[in-house]
Amino acid sequence: LTDGFVTENSVVLIEGEAIDGVLHVHNMGSPIVENRLDSIKAIGLQNSDIFNSIGSLSEYEKLREQEIEHGEDGMFVVLSDVYLDSPAVIEKIERMLEGYSDFNPLPIFVFMGNFTSKPLSSASEGTKAMISYFEDLANVICKFPNVANEGRFVFIPGPNDPGITGVLPRGPIPNYFTSALRSKVKNVMLASNPCRMRFFTKEIVFFRDNLVSKMRRNCLIEPRQDSNGQLSSHAIKTVLDQGHLSPLPLSTSPIYWQHDHALRLYPFPDALICGDRVEQYYETYEECDAINPGPFSNGFNFVVYRPVGEAGGSQTKSDVELCEVP
């Protein structure tokens, strides 16, 4: 058995023999995977570009040159489970923003839900509370005029945030809840879950889900006992091996079929940043950076991701830093 969870609906490779109509399995493993570059070579650039933004290999090479020249300036600061109803969380966000307020250029701040410690009711009291929480965040950001005017903020909803829940992919948080934030902070993007971004030639997938707990509840065969990997490592390897962010039964994880392509992971992205309710995690798997920033609400953990940490010749190398607000 290879690393990862074997769940209902997952694809596996087996080795065994059929005796009297019964298949006796000797070995079982995940599908054979290939890195992003090999996949692009196999299916072609246009078939692998979900953004449909790079028309030819010559355009790709030009973008690659720009990436090598200017890409080291790019930085993503990623937080997950940002409980805006917690005064301690708001205080730590302010301290974190203060630390980055003098950066030039400023990083892109990615906030992933859940944005409250408990699901809010759909009644007027819950709606008013959520609006006030985002307004409190806007007031903290505005304490740093440079961050409010020049910084870019991306908000990705969690499982319990307002909107249509329980189905993937999830739409953005409704504008109604963030009107104060968007009026005070210049560059705010309300993104879907999952969310994909392109940084020059790099493709980055952000996903907020309780992946480990889902895998454990629905696994048919648990990961190898002799494996030293964390459960988060097994969960992320499972979705990458399966080429899909939700390789689970529809009864467990319903999917909008017309948007299923948003959940696919073939070819591998350059980075998969999955916010989960488990400890921080980082590993490179078949040249894909697999990252979990950890819950900000518990320990004030976050991750700094540089898609181009260093560039040398025709190659670039990413850089990942697991951080904590003191």
Relative strand content: 25-35%
Q: Give the helix/strand class.
A: alpha/beta
Main sheet? 6 strands, mixed
As residue ranges, the low-confidence spans are none
How many alpha or pi helices? 9
Provide the residue-averaged pLDDT.
92
- The beta-strand count equals 15
Helix-strand sequence: EEEHHHEHEHHEHEEEHEHEEEEE
- Rg, nearest Å: 21 Å
Helix content: 25-40%
Would you kindly provide a written description of the structure presented here, covering whatever features stand out?
It contains nine helices and 15 strands. It is α/β, with parallel strands linked by helices and 326 residues long. Strands 7-6-5-4-14-15 form a six-stranded mixed beta sheet. Strand 2 (13-19) and strand 3 (22-29) form a beta hairpin. Helix 4 (87-100) runs parallel beside helix 5 (124-141). The longest helix has 18 residues, at 124-141. The mean pLDDT is 92.
Topology:
Layout: E1 6-7, E2 13-19, E3 22-29, H1 36-43, H2 45-48, H3 57-70, E4 76-80, H4 87-100, E5 108-112, H5 124-141, H6 145-150, E6 152-156, H7 179-184, E7 187-190, E8 195-199, E9 202-208, H8 211-218, E10 219-221, H9 231-242, E11 271-275, E12 281-285, E13 288-292, E14 301-312, E15 315-324
Parallel strand pairs: 4-5, 5-6, 6-7, 9-11, 11-13
Antiparallel strand pairs: 1-10, 2-3, 4-14, 8-9, 12-13, 14-15
